[in-house]
Design goal:
Blueprint (H helix, E strand, L loop, with lengths): L11 H6 L3 H17 L4 E5 L2 E6 L2 E8 L4 E5 L11 E2 L6 E5 L7 H13 L7 H4 L7
Antiparallel strand pairs: 1-2, 2-3, 3-4, 4-6, 5-6
Helix pairs in contact: 2-3
Length: about 140
Amino acid sequence: MAMQDAGKPRTIEEFNAIQAPEDRQICELLRQVIDGGLPEAESRIWHAHPVWFLAGNPIVGYSKLKSCVRLLFWSGQSFDVPGLAPEGTFKAAEKRYTSVAQVDVDELRTWLEQARLIQWDYKNIVKKRRLDRIS
């Protein structure tokens, strides 16, 4: 591990393990449901956070913010179901959790179904200098 990376988690297990107990419960539940809902996805630490990819394209991930755990869907603003708040200047949308009891597993599974069907091409955004819908 490079010196500047010392202490940073290299795996999703390591990321979850360093969270405070309540946040760890949220992270572990999110991971379990995401893994079950997107079994074909590649999951790894990307930009210091757990992220799931389909065909190299980021689909969903979560991060620890100061006051919550944020679940992020890269194409979430285009979903046909409610519950996510717009995030950033592209198509991403988020849900924030401060308690594991706030995680609605059925709602999360619905978002994961949407994430498989509705994707924007973040993988090639730098090369193309635009965001295209790919499904």
